[in-house]
Amino acid sequence: MRVLVIGSGAREHALLLALQRDPGVTGLICAPGNAGTAAIAEQRAVDVASGEAVAELAKDVAADLVVIGPEVPLVLGVADAVRAAGIACFGPSADAARIEGSKAFAKDVMAAADVRTAHSEIVDNPAKLDAALDRFGPTWVVKDDGLAAGKGVVVTPDRAAARAHAADLLENGHPVLLESFLDGPEVSLFSIVDGETVVPLIPAQDHKRVGDGDSGPNTGGMGAYTPLPWLPDETVDEIVEKVVRPVATEMARRGVPFSGLLYAGLAIGADGPAVVEFNCRFGDPETQAVLALLESPLGELLNAAAKGTLAQVSAPRWKDGAAVTVVLAAENYPGPPRTGDTITGADAEGVLHAGTKRVDGQVVSAGGRVLSVVGTGADLVAARDQAYERLSHVDLPGGHFRTDIGLAAVEGRITL
Ligand code: GLY
After folding, report:
1. Which among 15, 44, 181, 198 has most CB atoms closer than 10 A?
2. What is the reported pLDDT for 239?
3. 153 and 220 inside one domain
4. Are 277 and 195 within one domain?
5. Residue 326's Cα: distance from chain center in Å?
6. Once rounded to an integer, what is the mean pLDDT over residues 102-107?
7. pLDDT tens figures, 153-179
8. What's the domain count of the chain?
9. Residue to probe by mutation, ligand 1, list 143, 206, 287, most atoms within 8 Å of CB
10. 212-257 residue pLDDT tens
């Protein structure tokens, strides 16, 4: 099976590495990719937002399966275009991708499926902002009601900061979503879904703030670890039965069945799991940790979901132990990142590329999140040790990373 992976992040690098381990995968192509993916897959240029261009490329490289990594092409219907060209595609239709692309759609599906989530209101008129803010708080959750790669979210106890962010979004023409704050540790649970068949992967936790101790602004994710020693197996079962399966069933009932990766972002509060958000694709950077522990063939799983035969594939098998990924970000990220710096040590094992390109044989930074360094081990302590040891051999001028990925779990500071 020849697989074309669409995207250019460390998530796509992780997908390619896992696909490479699948004996059923005979060819790997990545578009547009980065300096790391170019080392393991044929690299092609493509406009990821164009369904026509991706479908043409899939035909040109004789792909048997297309795997779409990022949300933007999914929301724009690129998976529909690939399927219309007669090629199997892992990724939801544009209609189903609204579970991420439209907060209003996601809330409506959750209400119909009786899934616990935050109370929310959309504000699109600046004159109504203050009254709406008064109905929330004292911790305010202010989101861009569209795709913002995690960076459009501000969670703050400071009303003035919440107001400033909301006003800024409105001024730039973006409707604002205000949400009640969900307390409790966060979990990312990915499930491969094909209609009403749901296959959960192992749960992970992302670290969204830029600085140690969850300080500073939100980012796309600064690191992740899996599994979660503080999360009982029954809670994962509860998430599948009370959240993921009801949502998949409700989407199928509405005639917009979900096929692809359904990412449930949850807070585990005193009353059990509640949904913070759904995404319609693999999470980044959780995927880099989750797939590092996958033992069974990824291509078989994704292909089965794409072809509607997921129910016939055995459940994924996982290596014992733990995995940790630490993101190395460019100077000034999550603001406009400094780019063009030469990176050393980026071709080593466990170093996955995101914002990189190769210039005259050198790896050069080309984005905000530059690398994802992955470590595995018998437990979280060993996995952290390996990730940070590997990171110590990488140099990116001006680069920064969190030193506490997975640390709260190691120190038993996460309790339910
Ligand atoms: N880890 C956050 C995301 O993928 O959206």
Report:
1. 15
2. 98
3. no
4. yes
5. 14
6. 89
7. 899 999 999 999 999 999 999 999 999
8. 4
9. 206
10. 999 999 999 999 999 999 999 999 999 999 999 999 999 999 999 9
DSSP letters spanning 275-328: EEEEESS--TTHHHHHGGGB-S-HHHHHHHHHHT-GGGSPPP-B-SSEEEEEEE
Q: Which of 144, 179, 214 is the last residue of a domain?
A: 179
Q: Where are the beta strands (DSSP E) in 157-245?
A: 176-179, 186-194, 197-200, 205-206, 209-211, 215-218, 223-226
Run of H or E residues at 30? strand 27-32
Cα 285 to ligand 1 centroid, rounded to whole Å: 7
Instruction: For residues 14-18, give the mean pLDDT.
Output: 98
Q: Does residue 389 fall inside a structural domain?
A: yes
180 C-alpha vs ligand 1 centroid, how far in Å?
20
Do 232 and 254 belong together in one domain? yes
List pocket residues of ligand 1, CB cut-off 6 Å.
Answer: 150, 206, 221, 279, 283-284, 286
Whether 203 and 290 map to the same domain: the answer is: yes
Which CATH number does the domain housing residue 73 bear? 3.40.50.20
CATH of the domain at 391: 3.90.600.10
Quote the pLDDT of residue 151. 58
Q: What is the distance in A from the centroid of ligand 1 to the CA of 115? A: 21
* Banded pLDDT at 259 (limits 50, 70, 90): very high
Same domain? For 187 and 154 the reply is: no
Task: Please tell me the distance between residue 295's alpha carbon and the centre of ligand 1 in angstroms.
Answer: 23
Instruction: Among 153, 225, 262, 263, say which to mutate for ligand 1: greatest number of ligand atoms within 8 Å of CB.
Output: 263
What CATH number is given to the structural domain containing 133? 3.30.1490.20
> What is the residue range of 227's domain?
183-312
**Which letter does DSSP use for residue 178 in this model?**
E
Task: Pick the closest to residue 130 from 156, 165, 163 (CA basis).
Answer: 163
364 forms beta bridges with 342, 357
In ligand 1, which atom is closest to the CA atom of 279?
A: 5
| Structural domain includes residue 273 | yes
The per-residue pLDDT for range 298-338, each reduced to its tens digit, is 999 999 999 999 999 999 999 999 999 999 999 999 999 99
Nearest CA to ligand 1 atom 3: 283
